């Protein structure tokens, strides 16, 4: 009976995960690139996914890349191992965020974000079709900062980047503050 209960519980968890991911919004991120009509690169922003979410995203949305914006202390190996088993690309960008601490307080944050942008851009340059999930813990602060930075690096202007983020996840958009946008534009993208 325990084995049957376990199967039923997993089936219910998966069904709930499918409902969760159907609520996600994806935005095309390659409209500014040459031959954008021949390429389908889309991204979404979310909180840290559960195992069932990643399975559902792979099956239902053809998820191909997960960008984890968390530090070692946040059990990132769990996400890494699921991605590996599902043959989903995985990039970890070690952005630290604890309580009220600002992510920009860490001295090498500029280089960390620039390296993350370079890693994702490398994938985008090599592949025509990518479905990307960007997440941190809550999917607000670190996810918003990195999503804005990647969109700016893909030649979207400030307003276009913000509109895409708002369309994808309003909660993330609401977490973006002017000083964060200014910091990215001035120190990371160098605009």
From TrEMBL:
Tyrosine specific protein phosphatases domain: residues covered: 114-180
Gene3D superfamilies on file: Protein tyrosine phosphatase superfamily
Single GO MF descriptor: phosphoprotein phosphatase activity
InterPro entries membership: Prot-tyrosine_phosphatase-like (IPR029021), Tyr/Ser_Pase_IphP-type (IPR026893), Tyr_Pase_AS (IPR016130), Tyr_Pase_dom (IPR000387)
Database matches in Pfam families: Y_phosphatase3
Protein name: Tyrosine phosphatase family protein
Source species taxonomy: Eukaryota, Sar, Alveolata, Ciliophora, Intramacronucleata
């Amino acid at each position: 009976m325990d084995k049957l209960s376990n199967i039923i519980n997993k089936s219910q968890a998966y069904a709930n995960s499918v409902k969760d991911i159907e609520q996600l919004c994806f935005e095309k991120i390659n409209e500014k690139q040459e031959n954008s009509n021949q390429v389908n690169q889309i991204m979404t922003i979310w909180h840290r996914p559960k195992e069932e979410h990643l399975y559902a995203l792979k099956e239902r949305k053809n998820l191909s890349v997960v960008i984890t914006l968390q530090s070692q202390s946040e059990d990132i190996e769990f996400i890494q191992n699921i991605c590996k088993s599902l043959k989903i690309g995985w990039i970890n960008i070690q952005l630290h965020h604890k309580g009220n601490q600002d992510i920009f307080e860490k001295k090498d944050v500029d280089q960390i974000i620039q390296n993350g942008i370079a890693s994702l851009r490398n994938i985008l340059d090599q592949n025509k079709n990518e479905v990307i999930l960007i997440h941190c813990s809550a999917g607000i602060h670190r996810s918003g900062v990195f999503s804005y930075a990647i969109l700016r690096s893909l030649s979207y202007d400030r307003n276009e980047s913000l509109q895409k983020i708002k369309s994808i996840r309003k909660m993330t958009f609401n977490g973006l503050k002017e000083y964060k946008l200014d910091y990215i534009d001035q120190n990371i993208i160098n605009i």
